[in-house]
Amino acid sequence: MSPRPEATPSVTVRGATAADAALLALVGQATFLESYAGTLGGADILAHCQGQHAPAVYAAWLADPRSRCWLAQAAHGGAPVGYLVLAPAAVPVPDPDPTDLEIKRVYLLHRFQGVGLGRQLIDVAAEQARQAGSRRLLLGVYSQNHAALAFYARTGFQRVGERTFRVGNSDYFDYLLGLAL
Ligand SMILES: CC(C)(COP(=O)(O)OP(=O)(O)OC[C@H]1O[C@@H](n2cnc3c(N)ncnc32)[C@H](O)[C@@H]1OP(=O)(O)O)[C@@H](O)C(=O)NCCC(=O)NCCS
Question: Quick one: pLDDT at residue 1?
Answer without folding.
Answer: 39
